[in-house]
Design a protein that fits this description.
Elements (H helix, E strand, L loop, with lengths): L8 H9 L12 E5 L4 H17 L4 E6 L2 H7 L1 H4 L4 E5 L14 E4 L5 H5 L4 H21 L4 E7 L28 H21 L2 E7 L2 E2 L10 H10 L4 E3 L6 E2 L2 E2 H14 L6 E3 L5 E2 H10 L7 E3 L11 E2 L4 H7 L7 H15 L3
Helix pairs in contact: 1-2, 1-9, 2-9, 6-7, 8-10
Amino acid sequence: MNEKTNPLHKDLDFILQHTEELWEEIRGKRIFITGGTGFFGKWILESFIWINRILDLKSEAVVLTRNYESFKNAFPHLAINKYVSFQIGDIKNFKFLDREFPYIIHLASASAEGYFKKEDPVLRFDTIVNGTRRLLDFAVKCNAKKILFASSGNIYGIQPSDMTHIPEDYNGAVNPDDSNAALGIGKRAAEFLCITYAKSYGIEIKIARCFSFVGPYLQLNLHYAIGNFIRDGLMGGPIIVKGDGTPYRSYMYAADLAIWLWTILFKGQSCRPYNVGSEEAITIADLARLVASCFDKPIEVKIMKKPDPNVPPERYVPSTKRAREELGLKQRISLKEAIIRTIEWNKKWKIF
């Protein structure tokens, strides 16, 4: 796939525009990537390949994956590329390569699909924690200098209803009985491992606590409200809100996400977590209406439950003050524009 045929070329040029000053330090060097076949990973690969070619960096990425053939069949332009090679293996026990990798991006985690299919929570926890431990042991062996660890906003537990935006220094905790406790508790434990290894071995480990996102490659049939709403609209509607629509969420476009992740890898302070996401809160009901408004024809919105006036709305909205003030990051693409771009991409490249 070349510059003219890549449907994401405008987004990839946008990523380059806002990260160009960062890339010289990776010229001619290797980067090891886990989770490179997921939603985050595809955007990291797309931007790495694009920028590598345009800036002639002569850098190489090695991507750990369990199922290369499946990925190759679905995304050949990412799987068959001179800048990228693949190692077959599981994050919990993959074979160490006998090469140096100054940079590592650790995106591998318990999958969203696994949670949707009610995967064993102990298995999910082990994948996050033991996988991170294995990756860190490899980082020591391969002389890694900088690591980006993709953590999650789930580590904070339930956001207090009177806290509009949750900061990195909030020390809330996940309820162990929560349905997705394995993710939040596992990511917290993995952060502990990262910080411990950073201090013990002198590796710069950058932590990105990621919230909610939208964009091409987002799976539309899992438990993501925004993905479900876009799917419903693409199928002609109605858009179904299964709850009462009162929870607050915020969404960042995937191209902005890529800019933030690359910037945190290269410029972030070691062992200092950065929230990654949008500060623009929106209720699920208003989100459904916004998605509906992004289609050319009228799309009905149905909200299945009525709000309880005695129950304060849930919130899952980050404060990104640290990333803004320390790294100069900001959200550049509005939610409405993000939804429109995601819809248009799915119309052209997905089948419904």
